[in-house]
Amino acid sequence: MSVPVFCLTGGQVVLGGRRILDEVDIRVEAGEFVAILGANGSGKTTLVRSLVGLVPLAAGHLELFGTPIGRFRDWARLGYVPQRLAVGGGVPATVGEVVASGRAGRVSRFRRYGADDRRAIAHALEDVGLADRTRDAVTTLSGGQQQRVAIARALAGEPEVLVMDEPTAGVDADSQDTLAGALGHLSNAGGSVVLVAHELGPLAGLIERAVVLSHGHVVSDGPPPQPEGHHADPAHVHGHPHAGEQPQRAGFGLA
Amino acid sequence: MSIFAYDFMRRALVAAVLVGLAAPAIGTFLVQRRLSLMGDGIGHIALTGVALGFLLGTAPVLTAIVVAIVGAIAIELVRERGRASGDVALALLFYGGIAGGVLLIGLSPGGTPGALVGYLFGSLSNVTTSDLAVIVGLGVAVLAIVAVFARELFAVCQDEEVARVSGLPVRFLNILVAVTAAVTVTVAMRVVGLLLVSALMVVPVATTQQLTRSFRTTLLGACALGATASVGGLVMAFYLDVAPGAATVVLALGVFLVFVLLGGARRAVAR
């Protein structure tokens, strides 16, 4: 069996004294297309953030491409797409500039971007259907288009795995279709995708496996729920927003 | 009498060009991450460094650089914690810097707060030959750092977490911005003064972005404007006998107003 992209065993995350994830085991193979589902507050976002090293594990063991995360250096193999593209900076930036920044970690700081870099950036922009907006300021784009910019930025780095936090939240139907197309290309080329989703929408056909979280635990892991009206989807079971406040340990009442 | 007839004016002009280029270059990254007041904070802290120089009898520029760098790293570490109290911690550093400066100058032999005025607002006769060497060396270093690291700094200022996942040395880059800003502040204090340094880091950026769409154009335009304003301010200071820092900043703010009106007119036409 090939080396898994992510291998988390016994993963536990504690934030602000609350146990957000506990005893999470998840293994993502190369080429897999995995959706992380679950109610609000179930720990989906924390799980993907811990997989890419943005949230430290309180306990457990995480390997990226077979290397323990503490020693992992091959970050160019990963692409990360946050929930929202940050556009609140005080200085304008064009779509092309933001997407190009996705390659900054791959190229020596003493070198200019070469033909390969420019090709990858142009390709990423085409993939999300924004090639004609390259020179526009990102602030002039709609929310869905900005989300596509964030995805193109990750794609510009030509990652082997794309990790996305709710890429479809608040995104218009057109953008969702474009997104599905871009992810389909990546998946066909052998790339892996791990995404947090609330509604699968046009992505439903691409997802091979769904990991469902509840109260910080994995409660199911297998083929995705069939998209017959999304209320059948376990993600739509409304959880308790303050589920984490169950008495776990005394003394954490002070925020 | 020509402005170039005086040695001190020639030195001041060279210093003004470098400071005018360097301050907005690093300032663009500060404005991008909404840290426009960081230059101010560093300027306040540097005042303690200047006074320390008087007290110890060493060159105030050297002590100012050291104290400003330490202060800038402290500000960055507070920011990194990302708590609401960071705002208060910054305020404490501001007050501590000014109070420390005035206190230390009072303790130094023959020192009066008046000795600090040239550092607070800039002074034409401030720039000695050895000062000029320091200003040129450090100014060029700041520009070189911005040129080499611009791509990574842009990525970090755009989204720190995405930058971290893409393998960039985020913490190093943040501290690099803080240290570079500190160096810029101390370089610029001779020309525009510590209290107005930050204006030269921020106002040209705020001005160009009225008309620009891209980060790159904003940065380059701000550098051009910064150099123009600081040279213009110096010339104004020479003929009107006013503090160069004040003249520079008033000039820069005037251009800002013009750009705001132009930007507004352009948007109105586009509509």
* Rg for CA atoms of chain A: 19 Å
- Please outline the major beta sheet of chain A: 6 strands, mixed
Poorly predicted regions of chain A:
237-255
Query: What is the CATH architecture term of chain B?
Result: Orthogonal Bundle
**Helix-strand pattern of chain B:** HHHHHHHHHHH
Number of helices of chain B: 11
The largest sheet of chain A has its strands arranged as 6-7-8-3-9-10
Helix residue percentage of chain B: over 70%
Order of helices and strands of chain A: EEEHEEEHHHEHEEE
| Helix percentage range of chain A | 10-25%
| First and last CA, distance of chain A | 45 Å
Query: What is the CATH class name of chain B?
Result: Mainly Alpha
Quaternary structure annotation: heterodimer
CATH fold call of chain A = Rossmann fold
Q: Averaging pLDDT over every residue of chain A, what do you get?
A: 85
Please give the alpha-carbon distance between the first and last residues of chain B.
50 Å
Please state the overall shape of chain B, judged from the principal axes of the Cα atoms.
globular
List segments of chain B where confidence is low: pLDDT < 50 over at least 5 consecutive residues: none
CATH topology of chain B: ABC transporter involved in vitamin B12 uptake, BtuC
What would you give as the CATH superfamily of chain A? P-loop containing nucleotide triphosphate hydrolases
Note the beta-strand portion of chain A.
15-25%
Topology:
The complex is a heterodimer of chains A (255) and B (271).
Chain A: E1 6-15, E2 18-28, E3 33-38, H1 44-51, E4 59-64, E5 67-68, E6 78-81, H2 95-100, H3 115-127, H4 143-156, E7 161-165, H5 173-188, E8 192-196, E9 209-214, E10 217-222
Parallel strand pairs in A: 3-8, 3-9, 6-7, 7-8
Antiparallel strand pairs in A: 1-2, 1-4, 4-5, 9-10
Helix pairs in contact in A: 3-4, 4-5
Chain B: H1 7-32, H2 38-56, H3 60-81, H4 85-107, H5 117-121, H6 129-158, H7 160-165, H8 170-188, H9 197-208, H10 215-240, H11 244-270
